[in-house]
Amino acid sequence: MKKIKLFPAPHVEIRIHVSEEMERDYVECQKMMKRGEDCDCDRCSWANVSIYGTGACELKGLKEQLGGISGEIDRKER
Hints:
By secondary structure, the chain is α+β, with helices and mostly antiparallel strands. The protein has helices spanning 20-34, 62-65; strands spanning 2-9, 12-18, 50-51, 54-55. The protein is built from two helices and four strands, in the order ββαββα.
């Protein structure tokens, strides 16, 4: 399990514990979006992880925390 910290605003910290399944789903979703395909969010392990109606997978900074700085997810620890 990977622990992610996001800072969406000053004085605000969000901690997300990302399971291996969540990481795989995120990688697959990013690949599908890059190809222009739609993801089935209802079947995703991120489906019920939201903050005030925004899916946690859409939060700014998550891609970088999961290792996708250069446009590809490389699964390296950051």
